[in-house]
Amino acid sequence: xxxxxxxxxxxxxALVLAGCGGVGRSGQDGAATLTTMGFGTGDxxxxxxxxxxxxxxxxATVRIGGNAFDAQQFxxxxxxxxxxxxxxxDRQLLGTYAAxxxxxxxxxxxxxxxxxxxxxxxxxLAEVTLDGKLYGLPEFYNNRVMMTNGxxxxxxxxxxxxxxxxxxLTRRGGDGKLARVGFDPKIPEFxxxxxxxxxxxxxxxxGKKANLxxxxxxxxxxxxxxxxxxxxxxxxxKAFRDSFNFFGEKNPFSQDQLAAFPMExxxxxVLANMSPNVGLGVTPFTDxxxxxxxxxxxxxxxxxxxxxxxxxxxxxxxxMTSSESWIAAAQARANARKAEGKAFTGxxxxxxxxxxxxxxxxxxxxxxxxxxxxxxxxxxxxxxxxTMPASPAGSEFKTAWSDAVNRxxxxxxxxxxxLAQAQREAQQALDRASGGx
Amino acid sequence: xxxxxxxxxxxxxxxxxxERIRRWRKGFRRRETxxxxxxxxxxxxxxxxxxxxxxxxxxxxSLTDYDALGSPNLVGWANYEQLLSDPKVAKSLANTVVYSxxxxxxxxxxxxxxxxxxxxxxxxSAGFFRTLFYLPEVTPKVAVGVLFLMLFNGQxxxxxxxxxxxxxxxxxxxxxPDWVKPGLVxxxxxxxxxxxxxxxxxxxxxxxxxxxxxxxxxxxxxxxxRHITLPMISGTLFxxxxxxxxAALQTFDEAYTAFYGSTASATYSSDxxxxxLIYLFQQAxxxxxxxxxxxxxxxxxxIIMVITLVQVKVSKRFVYYEGG
Lengths: 437, 324
What we know:
The complex is a heterodimer of chains A (437) and B (324).
Chain A: H1 3-18, E1 33-37, H2 44-57, E2 61-63, H3 71-79, E3 86-90, H4 91-99, H5 107-112, H6 122-127, E4 129-130, E5 133-134, E6 137-138, E7 144-149, H7 159-169, E8 171-172, E9 178-180, H8 191-197, H9 215-229, H10 234-242, E10 260-264, H11 266-274, E11 280-286, E12 292-295, E13 299-302, H12 310-320, H13 323-340, H14 352-362, H15 369-382, E14 385-386, H16 394-409, H17 415-434
Parallel strand pairs in A: 1-2, 1-3, 12-14
Antiparallel strand pairs in A: 3-13, 4-5, 6-13, 7-10, 7-11, 8-9, 11-12
Chain B: H1 2-27, H2 31-61, H3 78-85, H4 87-120, H5 123-134, H6 141-151, H7 158-165, H8 177-189, H9 193-204, H10 208-216, H11 221-232, H12 234-249, H13 253-259, H14 263-267, H15 276-286, H16 290-318
């Protein structure tokens, strides 16, 4: 069978399996319609920037394609020869597609559009740089900080002390069921934060060597699982947590269902909207020496290699991530919050220039000291930010360590065994991805 | 010796086959034959394009390192060799087989019990109940997956609340690996409506005079069920047994939605719910190992084929076909 026939059959297979169509056509002329995947215009932060970016490439237009990034949809589109002009995805996933040549290095885009890379935060750029080449322009900058409820005093650096605190903060109802989670360590998802706090890098700086069997990481996992065991075990904590109304007025803070947890900064926004009078305390997460530490993640815009309107796509994402667009979007949200009589806690972006203006001029929380303090704590944590390196097998690496934690949480494996298995799986995937197809 | 025994049979079969081929060819002289094929053509074309074509393609891809993004390179049988050493293939296969062993008999027993109850109620109310039982069948599987997490929540789920009424402390259905599969089986029983309808139709076809004769002979209800009902509906039971087995071995939707579908659920995924098709899907679309995933698909195809052949073989002893 010829390569051409094989490709045609594959395309048919992919389309049938995926059950989805293409992503629309874009022309080469000035009035082209660009398509995107993985991005939605659900709020004023997105809408304001999209309006500005659209003006930059007019008369060309952009058709925004729906929702969160869907690997199956993206693959089907690429395999069928009709990829979107732009894709918006988790920065941790970008390396996987970059290593396979599916997304374009942005060197010429940066040069042609004269994009000032200095405006972006260095850790975010590192996340989208593989083998020295930039593959995406970073958007948000999600920080992880400690959040406490009702004045709970929690010191994550004092590991022995934290074990006692967890027990003190946990509450049970008359029926013996959990009534308040004392401290949620947020594993598996925050394992990299706990690991770095103990001095462990789970992945080498070049993103090609896994370090999941490190004895210190085993200790970290045993310790964090132990924190959950002190509150009734993973099953009880997760079942109770699954019952939380996380985004509503009856959130776990207002209902006193949760005393403390490390959390992403966007939750400040939820609490400011839903429970402005909650007894919130925010501090940077600290390592075992008591130094602030902040694991940052976020999303990025990338341009598929087979895209048909690369210049316009580049101009569009330049504007989407520019400081001016972020500031305009933040202003729109500030106005919206003001009209609702609610606090604006800011937007944490990967654009340092934008953040300076947003938090220097637009965020006014003098009348909300709790949130004012919280925002300042996040900004101070940002000074100690780290990111996971870009990796050619980002998805498999994450699945390997995440599954390992879940096996320990459910009692199927000991921490050492689970992480040893994860190390084998992750390294095998990294070796295969690094060695090309 | 064997050759001597089989040779005459072979000789006898040869003219038969030739005659059949001759008759088949002759049939094309008639307009009706062409009309019949014209009516069949949508299915034939659909089968060739959407089933046979992709199957051939997936077999070819299973011999390559295709990643869905670049050109495939031939790797011979390497993907099949890797299947043997991949612990997750064994794990997901074991999960799938255990689940199938629970869900297939469970579905058949519950569906048969419901069908027998429905068979006894009046005609008007039977229509209402048939519709009622069939409704979950049209509920999207994804919705059922989400429902699973809500109903089976260890702390506030309705199932454990109900068990609590009897002083039973329900398990952590969604996190305890020992209870994940039983929970999914219970959830699957929610949609037995299609099987109920089939059984009901089969039950309606059992001649009443058989029951009357047995009753006159003093047969107990159990003996009537054992010696009349079961044999008379064994063809339908066998059909659902095969279909349910294949469906169970290909289970995906509910477990994927509950444990892998969203970023949040994938974060807390359970190895106990890692069914074969979920792992295949991960390999194909999450890790971009389309060649390996194709090999996995062919392994599953082979397993299903063998199981079905065994079922067909065994069925000859247990299935009664009227007039057959």
